[in-house]
Amino acid sequence: MELFYREKGTGNKTIIIVHGLYGASDNWLSVAGELEKDFRVILIDQRNHGKSPHSQEHTYQAMAEDLHELMKKLNINKAILMGHSMGGKTVMRFCLEYPEMAEKMIVVDIAPKSYSSYANYAEVTADHGKIIEALSSVDPTKFKNRQDIDNILKETFPQKRLRGFLMKNLKRTKDGNYEWQLNLKA
After folding, report:
1. What is the Cα 110 distance to its own chain's centre?
2. What's the predicted TM-score (pTM) here?
3. 5-108 fold
4. DSSP assignment of 116-153, as one string?
5. Over its length of 186 residues, how does the chain's per-residue pLDDT go in tens digits?
6. What residues does CATH 3.40.50.1820 cover in the chain?
7. Could you tell me if 82 and 108 are in contact, meaning their C-beta atoms sit under 8 angstroms apart?
């Protein structure tokens, strides 16, 4: 799958930053701004997120293969790989498959274990099923402004910061309607 990516900096070493669930490459722009002084920084949108294509397959193996394909396309033989949350698991999977392509691995806020039950997350983010159900219940094409959608999500998620993060996935289409950029079905 051909992933959307952003590139910053021109350093001799490359660092690839892989975002977490519900995120996108733009979550890491401020970090990239600091790193670009010393590194070539690649920020990716993983499949079903941001500006990358959607697919019914959403596995760590598939996301690791996407990363491998992007590195080959960009002629990157070895890079520092940094992954946050879901991106951390993608990077771990990638390093199992292609250890020779990883100069270093940085894993942020995730461990190589199952998080299917309540874990070390705040209660509000532990239930991804609840988040996906809430987002899926809102048909953004029926709304003319973001505030109305935010008000509906407020009933389920009173935390403004969480809603703001989730609503980063709400995008305008060319015809002026809204859509979820995140592939909620996958």
Report:
1. 14
2. 0.77
3. Rossmann fold (3.40.50)
4. SSS-SS-HHHH-HHHHHHHHHT--GGG-SSHHHHHHHH
5. 999 999 999 999 999 999 999 999 999 999 999 999 999 999 999 999 999 999 999 999 999 999 999 999 999 999 999 999 999 999 999 999 999 999 999 999 877 766 554 444 444 455 788 889 999 999 999 998 999 999 999 999 998 888 998 999 999 999 989 999 989 988
6. 5-108
7. yes
d(CA 9, CA 41): 6
CA pair distance 170, 113, nearest whole angstrom: 30
Q: Which residue has the tokens 């952003």?
A: 6
Structure tokens at 10: 């021109």
Which amino acid, 85?
S
Between the CA of residue 107 and those of 95, 157, 175, what are the distances in Å? 11, 28, 39
C-beta separation of 125 from 155 below 8 A: no
Q: Give the distance, in angstroms, between the CA of residue 4 and the centroid of all CA atoms in the same chain.
A: 11
3-state per-residue secondary structure call for 23-71: CCHHHHHHHHHHHCCCEEEEEECCCCCCCCCCCCCCCHHHHHHHHHHHH
